[in-house]
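EI: anyone free to look at a 284-residue chain?
SC: sure, send it
EI:
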Amino acid sequence: MTVSLLPLSGKAKVAGLIGWPVSHSRSPRLHGYWLAEHGIDGAYVPLPVQPDRVEAAVRGLAAAGLRGVNVTIPHKQTVLALCDEVDDTARRIGAANLLTFDGEKIRGANTDAFGFMENLKAGSPGFDASRAPAVLLGAGGGARAVAVGLLDAGLPELRLCNRNRARAERLAEDLGSSARVVPWEDRGAALAGAGLLVNSTSLGMSGQPALELSLDGLDSAAVVSDLVYSPLETPLLAAARAKGCTAVDGLGMLLHQGRPCFAAWFGPDPRVTPELRSYVLGGD
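SC: here you go
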């Protein structure tokens, strides 16, 4: 597949991505595809911003007339203090991955919970979060987004397992009575009766230690989701498929979280298609 970007005019709409680093990100490829698909006079550019330069960069980009930026690690929490307005989801998650600029006014939002739930819906049609508890591995920013998305969808119980128990307890306290902490060493036992297992840790990612977890206690009707998408088929997802579970890879979360961002900056509500997945993975 070949994607041809249109030449930019002096009226081009420009957005970007700030983080440190950003060279690994697939977001420029994602938004570049949609810009070409919709024939938009616009651009999306990666912008490496050092942690001590975040405020200067964000205010400068707003003043320069950009439509807004995506925010990735390690700046998602830092940018909240710079926002004139913050949506409820970003406030509850404690991080923003989307900034929109109206003149020099900065609005913060978080589309990660939306991206996770849309990916879950696409990968497991008919999934109903209200039917059974979920087990969530991890307690970082991704875990917070997953937790908020699931609880908003009616999840009755969230079992949090994290290597750092204190971090899991802080997350559980923030989330309320539907969340409870399970010791990391008991993560296998926590699978009993769960309808969903989500890995939001880096375990199983290329170059990272393996996620050691037996799925013996998980019902074969359960759904298993891994936020890792490098590799796309993690050992956890391979084990889930072998057991008969529905496996949902992490790439779709990236793609779906980008939809409201693209719409906010450029107008159209874009689609997530097999062709898009292939292109973002580099198969052009």
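EI: DSSP finds nine helices and twelve strands in the chain.
SC: 👍
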